[in-house]
Design a protein that fits this description.
The chain has about 350 residues and is of the alpha/beta class. The chain is built from 14 helices and 13 strands. It has helices at about 10-25, 45-50, 70-90, 105-115, 130-135, 160-165, 195-205, 225-230, 245-250, 260-270, 285-295, 310-320, 325-340, 345-355, and strands at about 1-5, 30-40, 55, 95-100, 120, 140-145, 155, 185-190, 215-220, 235-240, 255-260, 275, 300-305.
Amino acid sequence: MRVIISAGGTGGHINPALAIIEKIKKEDKKSEFLYIGTTNRMEKDIIPKKGIPYIGIEMQGLKRSLSPKNISAVIKYIKAVNKCKKEIKNFNPDIVIGTGGYVTAPVIYAAKKLGYKTLVHEQNSVLGLSNKILLKYTDTLCTSFESMKIDKVHYVYTGNPTSESTIDKKPYNKADFNLSKSKKLVLIVMGSLGSSTVNEILKKSLKMFTGKKYEVVIVTGKDYYKEFEKLDRSKNVFIFPYIDDLSRLMKVTDVLVTRAGASTLSEIMATKTPSILVPSPYVTENHQYKNAMNLVNKNAGVLLEEKDLNEDTLVKEIDKLINDPNKMLDIKDNLERLCKKNSTTLIYNEILKLINRK
């Protein structure tokens, strides 16, 4: 199988792409891949290191208000479409896949115009702007949330592909992080890059965990680590700039405090981690709040909106959840029911259907 795959901008888009690649490699040892991403975002470093052939295209997102910058965005888009058409013809794939980020727009559009089969995966509970635009150029849309219903396109509820890959991962040894094996663990992380707003609150909370029977790991994001490192904190609080493969630590975490990005929620479901969700209010169509409510409404998570977040409410909500074993057990049971454990298999089957439809 020859596959072109495109995703960019955040781990929430890139990780599903990698999960799909790994599944195809597992099922088809002779498969070949070409990854198309941007020239200036995180995928340009991540993908080549994994030995996956990579092509970067210049792209920028459209501003949602009238802006002169949109002119340069359109010019870059036209150039990107032309470059994508050339690369797609040269590679001649069996299918072209997009898993999010504005870089996927010229890739899927060019592929469809050239007559290739296309599959798009949407991680969030509402369609992203690129995927909205791409609907008419998409043969199959795979969705992460059962609640998503789309008109005028063939869509399949598959779940998020990171769920299935997360289930197979080995948990970290707590000792590797100087953590106690016998104490409960609270993990606080606001995405791979961190959050300046939430980090200011976390700084104020560092001494408030004194005397707690649990330990706290705070992942600050690389840009904020030095600010935290010099601050006094309780002995049971541990600070890290970044933790690779965080879902492995989630497997030994009792309570997680985090944003409500789609990939994070899929890992929460896969690891059955009771979580306090703090949706980012700065994202398109408030989609993290909608993501979070898919869990909260099914008693599979706790909501703490950023407008209500301060050092007191943070510690209070953590204490309330971690000291309520029945609530923790209910959440775990509900996460187990919500988790789509065969998501990459379902996506792979959709890929096969499209290829065999040629």
